[in-house]
Amino acid sequence: MTPVAIIDIDTTIANNDHRAVLLKRVCAGCKMPMGGEHRPVCKNCGGEKHHTPQGAWDQFLQPELMALDEPQPHSLDVINAMREHGFTITYMTGRNSKHRPVTDAWLVKHGYKQDGDFLIMRPMKDTGKPASQMKEEMFLDYVHHEELKGPFFFFEDDRYVLGTWQKYGMVFVCPQAWETMNPSVLDRAVEPAWNR
Hints:
The chain is of the alpha/beta class.
């Protein structure tokens, strides 16, 4: 059996902090802007429900800004180590398939995509589908089409998608996992002998 790494792109291997500031949340109750905290509470009405307007998503997904994403530190080292150990590398993203040219160019430019790697993107017909549902469908279709048996290793930042991946294999929360998995930063000092 061939091990398969299913790797997300945004935030996982591509640092998009410069674009993320464009995703301004709006309170679902009073329609006022909300803060950027992980679990924001509206300072105007105290509501916790919010949404991100479509215009903010359109700005966030501008191809010219996507091209400026920087690689997450250590991610390429770990992916290359997986390649050396016979992993099939598959990038699976919630980015819409219309962003394939900029996504593919970014992966190649930064050394992530090599011959034999796969890039699976959200179909245009699934633009409104939650990422966890859409990625699970894409994964199952990919496994069936390629006749993959696994084992499967998932690298993801979205907590909802991570919960879905737990059904199918090992999950790694990124970008945090890259440094702890990177063979080049692990301590290779010789352990001293102890009298036991």
